[in-house]
Design brief:
Blueprint lengths: L4 E6 L4 H13 L4 E5 L2 E4 L5 H13 L3 E3 L2 H18 L4 H4 L2 H9 L3 H12 L3 H19 L4 H7 L5 H12 L3 H7 L13
Antiparallel strand pairs: 1-3, 1-4, 2-3
């Protein structure tokens, strides 16, 4: 049986990212086993000429091949958080995020937190809060849920607390944002820090 080569890839945040990465490897005749958020499993190692082209193609789409342990751990943290948001996994609000990350990454949370802060320049909690604000913007743009419903889905204690955090982050109240309905105010998830 052929040992699979595991490549870690930064900035994969959704199913479209998985498909884009799959297409890059397929276009460059790389034999894939599978692609998941942040990881490509190869059947055969990349040839040197393939690796250069794959790295460039990944960079052209905003991805990056990770090659050091610290970057890989930080990207795992981001992928856990992105996955929870993608599936609106409310356990992330009910359970302690530190417990979730320890379980997923297999390291003590204090080490994960220190590493994340040193690499990203912000704490995991601030990163999570940025993600939540972007999700609030998304929900407001769709104009299908009330502020109270959004607060409940995202684990805010009340709609007033959500409104306070939203204004603190964006300078706008959720109502002002909703009335402006300007999607350019939203950020891509891979741009958040």
């Amino acid at each position: 049986m052929i040992d699979l080569l595991t490549l870690r890839i930064k900035n994969m945040v959704c199913n479209r990212c998985i498909q884009a990465v799959w297409n890059i490897f397929e276009k460059n005749d790389v034999m894939l086993d599978r692609v998941e958020l942040g990881v490509a499993y190869l059947q055969l190692p990349l040839q040197p000429n393939q690796k250069e082209i794959v790295i460039k193609d990944l960079q052209d789409l905003g991805f990056e091949l990770l090659d050091n342990k610290q970057s890989i751990i930080v990207e795992k943290v981001k992928n856990v958080i992105h996955h929870k948001f993608e599936h609106l996994d409310q356990d992330i609000w009910k359970n302690n995020l530190s417990v979730e990350l320890q379980k997923e990454i297999g390291m003590d949370y204090s080490k994960i937190s220190t590493l994340f802060s040193s690499v990203e320049g912000i704490t995991i909690e601030k990163y999570l809060n940025h993600q939540k604000i972007e999700k609030v913007k998304e929900f407001l743009s769709y104009d299908e849920l009330t502020i109270a419903q959004i607060a409940d889905i995202l684990g805010y204690s009340s709609s007033q607390y959500l409104s306070s955090k939203f204004k603190q982050s964006t300078g706008l109240t959720p109502s002002n944002f909703k009335s402006m309905n300007q999607k350019p105010l939203r950020k891509s998830l891979d741009e958040l820090k």
